Amino acid sequence: MPVLAVMEVESSGEKREYRFPTIPFLNKNPQAQERYGSVDVDQGAVSHVAGGADVMRPGIKSIRGAFDKGSIVLVRDPRGLVIAVGIALYSSGEMNGMTKGKVIQTVHHVNDRIWKIYEALSKA
Fold it and tell me: N or C: the chain end with fewer CB closer than 10 Å?
């Protein structure tokens, strides 16, 4: 079972290699979520973010943990399930002071290529 994914991502004009946990692993191992900052989104944002959209500040209900710009951040639905993993475009402190704009660039979401690889390998 794949626990981590590795991907080169361009964020804020800079290419960088990111290592991040897969969503199925995170949801099966909630203690692993404690290593990362996270945001809880409202129900209206769930279908968009779960479909791969970036996270906009108005859709965030709460911000958990302290994280810096460029950090891996987990995106959770109202039930507490991780629906996406993204890169913070602002620090948690900056996000708390914002009311609009894109704040997290989504790099992994439910039913994406990484999710499907995880599912295929889990069945093998």
Answer: C
